[in-house]
Amino acid sequence: DAGVTQSPTHLIKTRGQQVTLRCSPKSGHDTVSWYQQALGQGPQFIFQYYEEEERQRGNFPDRFSGHQFPNYSSELNVNALLLGDSALYLCASSLNLVGGYTFGSGTRLTVV
Amino acid sequence: QQQVKQSPQSLIVQKGGISIINCAYENTAFDYFPWYQQFPGKGPALLIAIRPDVSEKKEGRFTISFNKSAKQFSLHIMDSQPGDSATYFCAASMSSWGGSEKLVFGKGTKLTVNP
User: Is residue B98 pLDDT above 60, yes or no?
Assistant: First the structure.
């Protein structure tokens, strides 16, 4: 039973570029949340998707956007990249109304 | 009010010793308090969680103690092993929607267990 799969595992981008990160949730899960984890910090909530809609959003600018597909997979898009966007981006899936996240191993984004 | 404060930042324990990590919160609406373990290059993994209706929960060598009046909770790792060396995060959430709520994480504690 595969857990949460994220791709790519590592990515290097230049300031001002755009990036798309992908996540496949754990089998049977229908809710996907994205977190940003800066080096040496705890994860920070970006947003959550359920039934292809953004259900909750954290304190992140509109440069961060997402999408959930009918098969529950999700994408995180970040436009106009800043150096400060360098971080580990974690995807977490869960089953709605049950709770309990399963995290993926993350995508390490470096902005130069 | 959305913060969760975690201490210490780092902790070194001898094999067989007890590791204790503490967290404090302000928002009394929080009603779910999980602890996550993260190894380098991996995502956080749920270790143990507690709700405010109990003061203690034990799973194997891991125990959460919860003090609702003080708005504090702690993780105790008994008989610490070198394999427990990892970064531990406390977190808090509120079930205002009844679903999978966003988690507010502490800044983490890097635990090193010496053999």
Answer: no
- Inter-chain CB proximity B89 and A42 less than 8 Å: yes
Please list the rounded mean pLDDT of every run of 10 residues in chain A (112 residues).
Answer: 90 98 95 94 94 91 97 97 98 78 95 98
Sign of torsion, CA A49 A53 A57 A61?
positive
* CA B85 – CA B88 distance, rounded (Å): 9
With a CB cutoff of 8 Å and minimum separation 6, the contacts of A100 are A94, B46, B49, B100
B107–A50: do the CB atoms touch at under 8 Å?
no
Of B18, B16, B22, residue with least CA distance to B35:
B22
A56: alpha, beta or left? (left if phi > 0; alpha if psi -120 to 50): beta
* Interchain CB distance below 8 Å, A31 and B106: no
Query: By the 8 A CB rule, do A106 and A22 touch?
Result: no
- Determine which helix (DSSP H) or strand (DSSP E) holds B35, and give its type and residue range: strand B33-38
Beta carbons of A105 and B91 less than 8 Å apart: no
pLDDT digits (tens, 9 = 90+) for B29-73: 888 899 999 999 899 999 999 988 899 999 999 999 999 999 999
Range B22-40 burial, b when 16+ CB lie within 10 A, else e? bbbbeeeebebbbbbbbee
Among A101, A102, A105, A107, pick the best mutation site for testing chain B contact (most B Cβ within 10 A). A101
